[in-house]
């Protein structure tokens, strides 16, 4: 008999979560009859449809590679393996489903949701309260699909594709990569729903997301993005007629510093440490205001999640805009304020032009200064400018 393959990482995590849940429920003295449904789900997930998929591979791949239509094999395996997973999900989500009488129990009722493996149907029980007229479906709540026709995993994919490519192209990419037909309008609606949930989470969740860093930085900036006409109605802008075509997005990226570069010795950003906060909202606040600006509050929430204020060294990068330094100074008074290199080099060129005009002498002076700054010799440049 062939030894079974070990579970995948994701499968192992799911099994571990179920095992922990079983242990806690057993410790609380939950009757075995109540645990049977969860045990059946674990049994199905533990077996997974691996044997079925392996059998398909054996049938599809011929003895000689020359005889193989690899694209057809890929397509068949995709369809077959996803079908096997759908069957397992349906069996798992319907396993041990029993009607509990009383408390307005009704059902079973069938629900169909779209998943990353296709559409899956399963039975679940519905509870109705005659007094208040409201209803509850516990299984939907447990699976994260209450009032939702997409699985959490598919929602994440839809929202990501929509953010990267827009609704129409996202619809095409989802069909090409996952064989799921989801129209552009539905992609847009689901993406907006995810965005609303993210916004609710961002406003309410400030628990630290990871260990505190020794050196933590934040880069703050603003940039204009094109928007629909109704978004800029009655707004002053930079067009010849005074109208606007863009709105300013204010953004902040938090990051940790890792070990210095071995060759140059320069500080390096830890590439896996970046988190961001951005929105089209005001950073303006008057001295008499009791609360910081909307963007400052957003920045403070992300800083709390990152543990920015608990790091040994804090610094902030900006382009010199007054609103940036005002916001940083108000929220992070201990942070070292650093003007970004691009703006420094830009100002040096402006200074050279102010001294020599726009001729070759100004270009030569600016080039020399920029070279000195890039090589770390900033103070001599400052001394010359004085």
Task: Explain what you see.
The chain has 386 residues and is an alpha+beta fold. It contains 13 helices and 9 strands. The protein has helices spanning 9-27, 32-47, 50-60, 70-94, 138-143, 152-165, 167-178, 184-204, 294-306, 322-331, 341-356, 360-374, 378-385, and strands at residues 105-115, 118-128, 135-136, 215-226, 246-258, 268-269, 275-279, 313-318, 336-339. A hairpin with a 6-residue loop joins strand 2 and strand 3 (135-136). Helix 1 runs antiparallel to helix 2. The chain starts with 8 loop residues before the first helix and ends with a helix. The model is unreliable at 93-103 (pLDDT under 50).
Largest sheet data: 6 strands, mixed
Pattern of helices and strands: HHHHEEEHHHHEEEEHEHEHHH
Q: Kindly state the mean pLDDT as a whole number? A: 78
Based on CA atoms alone, the radius of gyration comes out at 29 Å
Q: State the helix count.
A: 13
Q: How many beta-strand segments?
A: 9
Helix content: 40-55%
Given helix and strand content, the structural type is: alpha+beta
Shape: elongated
Note poorly predicted spans.
93-103
Distance between the termini: 85 Å
**Proportion of beta-strand residues:** 15-25%
Write the layout of secondary structure elements.
Elements: H1 9-27, H2 32-47, H3 50-60, H4 70-94, E1 105-115, E2 118-128, E3 135-136, H5 138-143, H6 152-165, H7 167-178, H8 184-204, E4 215-226, E5 246-258, E6 268-269, E7 275-279, H9 294-306, E8 313-318, H10 322-331, E9 336-339, H11 341-356, H12 360-374, H13 378-385
Parallel strand pairs: 4-8, 8-9
Antiparallel strand pairs: 1-2, 2-3, 4-5, 5-6, 5-7
